Amino acid sequence: MNTLTKPTSLTDEIAYHLEQKIRQGEISAGQKLPSETQLRQQFSVSRNVIREALARLKSNGLIESRQGSGAFVLPAESHQHFRIIDDAKDLTALRKRYEIRLETEVAAASMAARRRTQSQLLKLQRTLDQLRDHGLTEHTEHDLQTQVAAASANNYLEGFLAYLNGREPVSPHYSWQNAPRQFIEHWQEIIDAIALGDPDLARRHYWRYLLSSAELQGIRGLQGWERTRMSGLSELYAPLCAPALASERRPRLPIPVGACDSHMHVFWPDHARSFTPHRSYTPPPASLESYLAVQKRLGISRAVIVQPSVYGTDNHVVLESLRQARRQQGEDAFRGVVVIPPNIRFEELEAMHLLGVRGVRVNLLFKSGVAVSDLRTLANKIAPLGWHLQLLADLSEFSDIESTLGALPVPVVIDHMGHIPPELGPQHPGFSSMLRLLATGKIWVKLSGAERLSGERWPYTDVRPLAESLLRTNPERLLWASDWPHTCLSGAMPDDADLLDLMEFWTDDRALQHRVLVENPAALYGFASLPDQERIL
Q1: Judgement on whether residues 503 and 465 belong to the same structural domain of the protein
Q2: Has 508 been annotated as catalytic?
Q3: Are 330 and 352 in contact (CB under 8 A)?
């Protein structure tokens, strides 16, 4: 009897053990494998484990099943060399696997909505009903995936998904054990869409389910961080966001006079100023008055109001908030960043400038009405005013940022450390390109969004290598920002005092902290210089 260890799963090891025997010629082409019963006795495992291992060998082109005769080894030219090696702790590998799942399983759900039989529908619903009665098991997700794949009526796709999903690390045992109600809700939506025969709806529900599953395993930002990208133009899917955390805690970090929050938002109630219908989320009200209370608690005296995507190119809330801030806090306390259409009249920009607007935002993560193709036009439009372009994008998804951003006639500010998933690390080509641009001084980068990028809780240690790489590269082009009130956040709501304290976690250099919090934003946004005595920490 063979004794097995378990580096990943018994299925994986048995499949690997038999594969090695086949590739090394110990079991030759045309030879019959031992029966399922013999293999069960040999490895002391269940029938399901043996069947999954044989399915793996079949997907790899190593064996074929002959009805009534058993499994036989195929010639070497039929063997596949493609491999997916699983390690639940390797988030980069897990991300790549989810990217494949988003393309293939979503397609299978769409096909199933067109091709499923009544018996397949009943089987899917029965499996889900059993889950309601008896709870999640480590096979539940695999069973549902297998049934959707079978309902696609595409045996090639079914075989590939059997190979892809015949592994334990993505089962509910790992990702859904603490959220069974949400698991059931997702799958009921998928089954209902398949029953309805609506392939687009089935795709969208399966898409959202996989994004939620990935986030539960610490994988953020799949497919550009846009959870609603699968929404149809006629479908309003804009989930309500949680409100900002109410806290009285002050930061432990000593806050210098003139410190600036370089990125926050104001949201009025929808009845006071309508959101754009085709948006990615629905924010709760977050008034300027509420932010001023946060600002006072943090010890910050300056801030930048940034136009959020839910208002599109309607900048009314930002401009009115700037007017209010000037009346209450003076002319040098707030600046603004807006979103504009490429054909805006220059006179409108000049009026915005008088209110304190100093930049234009291009949001490539959430629906905002502005595209990457608009960058050059917008840059030329705002260059005479000395403004900058502010870019929200996942730079791991862009291959040419140096040629695109480096040639623009205005400074470029990158939101949230490039929005790169932290498991990709500072060595990722997109992050490395950003570092090279940062080193030349052509771009600015905000040390913000750690709570968005991280799969961990504060102090978000997985984000630390990104922040430290930025600080080493060019601290004269870095800004700190809270991103209050933290809309569309999938993780735990942060305390803004904790976000300020991250500066101490990333660097204990007081002069460097002062530069990021005070001097850099003053230079970029045109705040007045402070008297020398106030510049001292």
Answers
A1: yes
A2: no
A3: no
Residues 21 and 48 both lie in one domain:
yes
Tell me: the pLDDT tens digits for 34-84?
999 999 999 999 988 898 889 888 877 889 888 888 999 988 766 665 666
366 and 510 share a domain?
yes
Beta bridge mates, 65: 71
Identify whether 253 is part of a domain. Answer: no
Q: Are strands 302-306 and 388-392 parallel, antiparallel or unpaired?
A: unpaired
Model pLDDT for residues 154-167, shown as the tens digit of each residue: 988 888 888 787 64
Task: Report yes or no on 3 lying in a domain.
Answer: no
Question: Are 64 and 58 within 8 A, CB to CB?
Answer: yes
* Active-site hit among 415, 483, 495, 501: 483
- Cβ atoms of 471 and 478 within 8 Å: the answer is yes
Evaluate whether residue 252 is within a structural domain: no
432/345 same-domain check: yes
Query: Which two three-digit tokens encode residue 405?
Result: 């951003």
State pLDDT tens for residues 214-259.
888 888 877 666 565 565 545 566 889 999 999 999 999 999 999 9
Domain range holding 156? 91-219
Phi-psi region of 475 (alpha: psi -120 to 50; beta: other; left: phi over 0): alpha
- Co-location of 34 and 126 in the same domain: no
C-alpha span between 415 and 393 (Å, rounded): 8
Q: Domain count for the chain, please give it.
A: 3
- Separation CA 457–CA 491 (nearest Å): 8
DSSP β-bridge partners for residue 465: none
Structure token pair of residue 71: 């499994």
Evaluate whether residue 414 is within a structural domain: yes
